[in-house]
Write a structure and sequence with these properties.
9 strands; 2 domains; Rossmann fold; N-(1-d-carboxylethyl)-l-norvaline Dehydrogenase, domain 2; alpha/beta; three-stranded mixed sheet; six-stranded parallel sheet
Length: 301
């Protein structure tokens, strides 16, 4: 068994760290919210005061935090991993952040002979809790192969995508489709409902057509029940859409649909829906049109 670390114990990180503990590894824990680390420590891990403290006792450290600035802070900032990580330590970033910035962080770590992989994951809350995440990995292939068993405790699909930043480019490309599909779903369901088509009949039609989508099949019933419990929040998808646009600009790729979808998510955040699940963003168009997409018999809010 290995001496591992895990930073960031939110909706995704908490269950991921728990799977590593359950696999029998020694896991050092840190969170911006110390109570989360203490709660997980009670289930077999050990809580530490700073990322640097985690680095002192770990040979491989995973992190899953909110954005690029957070990643830079916990790795390179004051009391960050770089202060105490030993040469040969492996740091694995499972956050969804800027590919360019991730490469720069890796270059700074390499100066101290610290290995770095970008390994964003998909599967949302349920995938994290059930150990069914999909990881897209960038960095040295031999390092990825060395720690594959750790990934397998948290997920079942592993894709080695190439050198530094390539895991992030793959994840952002997937989320680009997801974000644009979400906007198409919101528009089409509000339109159909306002025109008089029963939403549940509309979903059945979609599920038996070329427009069938697992994403829609999962999210539509949540909308119908008015259940916007967070699995993947509006604010984090909006963040990811901006990362996609930044990467598109760097590579000189036009992305007009993504730009509009991102603006609609930003508008949903402005309306107060940022912390809710991404399917809750449909309320922006519902509010504008005086329409509510719900199952028959579902009470109005």
């Amino acid at each position: 068994m290995a001496n591992l670390g895990f930073l960031g114990l939110g909706i995704m990180g908490g269950p991921m760290a728990k799977h590593l503990i359950d696999a029998g590894h020694t896991v050092a824990l840190w969170s911006h919210n110390p109570s989360k680390a203490q709660q997980l420590a009670a289930q077999g891990g050990t809580a530490y005061a700073t990322p640097a403290n985690v680095a002192e006792v770990s040979d491989c450290i995973f992190l899953c935090v909110g954005d690029t600035a957070m990643v830079r802070e916990v790795i390179l900032g004051k009391d960050g991993l770089i202060e105490k990580a030993k040469p040969g330590t492996i740091i694995v970033d499972c956050s969804t952040v800027s590919p360019s910035e991730s490469r720069r962080i890796g270059e700074e770590l390499a100066i101290k002979n610290i290995e770095f992989l970008d390994a964003p994951c998909t599967g949302s809350k349920a995938g994290a809790e059930n150990g069914q995440l999909t990881f897209m990995v960038g960095g040295k292939k031999e390092i990825f192969e060395k720690i594959t068993p750790y990934f397998q405790a948290m997920g079942k699909l592993l894709y080695y995508c190439g050198g530094p930043g390539m895991g992030l480019h793959a994840k952002l490309s997937q989320n680009m489709i997801l974000g644009n599909l979400l906007q198409a779903f919101n528009e089409s369901m509000v339109l159909a409902t306002k025109a008089g088509v029963d939403p549940e009949i509309m979903l059945d039609i979609l599920n038996n057509s070329a427009a069938k989508s697992t994403f829609i099949s999962v999210k539509a019933p949540m909308v119908f029940k008015r259940d916007f419990t967070t699995n993947f929040s509006v604010k984090w998808l909006e963040k990811d859409m901006q990362l996609m646009l930044d990467s598109a600009a760097e590579l000189n790729i036009p992305a007009p649909v993504t730009s509009l979808s991102r603006q609609m998510l930003r508008a949903a955040i402005a309306k107060g829906y940022g912390e809710d699940d991404i399917c809750g963003s449909i309320r922006l168009l519902e509010d504008l049109t005086g329409t509510e997409v719900k199952a028959s018999g579902t009470p109005s809010n």
